[in-house]
Design a protein that fits this description.
This protein is an alpha+beta fold. It has 15 helices and 23 strands.
Length: 464
Amino acid sequence: MTAQAEDFPRWYQDVVTTATLADNGPVRGTMVIRPYGYAIWERMQAELDARIKAAGAANAYFPLLIPESYLRREAQHVEGFSPELAVVTHGGGKLLEEPAVVRPTSETIINVFFAKWVQSHRDLPLLINQWANVVRWELRPRVFLRTTEFLWQEGHTAHATAGEAQSYSLQILHDVYEDFARNVLALPVVAGRKTDRERFAGADATYTIEGMMGDGKALQMGTSHELGQNFSRAFGITFQSRDGANEFAWQTSWGVSTRLVGALIMGHGDDAGLRLPPLIAPIQVVVMVVRADPEVQDQATRLGSELAGLGVRVHGDDRTDVGFGRRAVEWEVKGVPVRIELGPRDLAEGVATLVRRDREAKVQVGLSGLAERVRDLLVEIQSTLLDEAERRRRDRTFEVGDPSDVAATLSEGGFARMPWDAIRDHEAEMAAMGFTVRCLQGIDGSVPTASTEPDLVATVARAY
């Protein structure tokens, strides 16, 4: 594979291909997610879905095709998405009476039904999540990071008060997205508020988690939006309050996508390929039979059963008709956290060779108690990868006082932290140089609920 230092984007594409994660689809900007890549996405879905349900949201499904008129009800929203829309004008061989938009996001169609379902304060909060595909016509596609069609979850909620909506949007940001990124993906993120220039079209406020990738660039990994009453007014989502008044609902929306697979590649990968944190790895341990031997095969099977009994996701590789070196490289590229190599000589000595993917360290260990040792090692590897990512972010985050110093400071990538007051009037100039304000935070790292709060700190970076 191409070395990261030589050409990071080419290295990224090499990993996607060599690790059999995805292929380019036949229509420009689309992708075919291969089984191993989809297995990683399924792990992400499971972890996120559990957190979303713990936050009180229920899963539902809404149509892919949205009447064009629905989008035009909220002016800022349609203006923000117009360049990316795919529009269906014909169906069944006939011109449609009204064009249908292939959903770029579902605020409009979901709110049509929210207006039907919400009548009283007793119907609130209404907390809905959808797992779906969306289409946005990307000009500069890159597999997983920006594709014309991608998979995601999108949450949509309605609340009785502005305070409840704001609280819920921040709950999703911290308890679902930030917790998942840090404690499952082992990627520390900067959680903050988007500037007005960068917020979601149609939102009053957008909150974000931003990760630092291996080349020092930022990646927006998830967003949560306060929609205020913008959509409820456009779609007539009203309810009778406790005191009998007729009021408009306050809303949120929030989502993460298959972009997280790209974050995983760029956040932990090395020149040999993927390095998967054990909690997200579809295969946590692969037991490799070095050469064909019935006794070795029996021992490998027993070891696999012991690991599975401890809750470890284990895979046995007994393809002795394929060269051992080739098989070892395959699992290395795919980022499996632990390999156990077992051959006749190992069995005779009562040992196996243990290989950690995070460090590529090989050690011989006794077969007795090996399964328990590997289970504990997976916990250690998860922690090690998080520590590495935190160290990279810490070492490549710089305090900057003047906007004119940003370009020189970030010439080799990284994040610049600077007073929001110093850059507030220079966002357009920064964007022209390829830098954006990724988010705003309080001095203590808190997420501000208004961009006008005093003493805010801006995180500036080049971004994907």
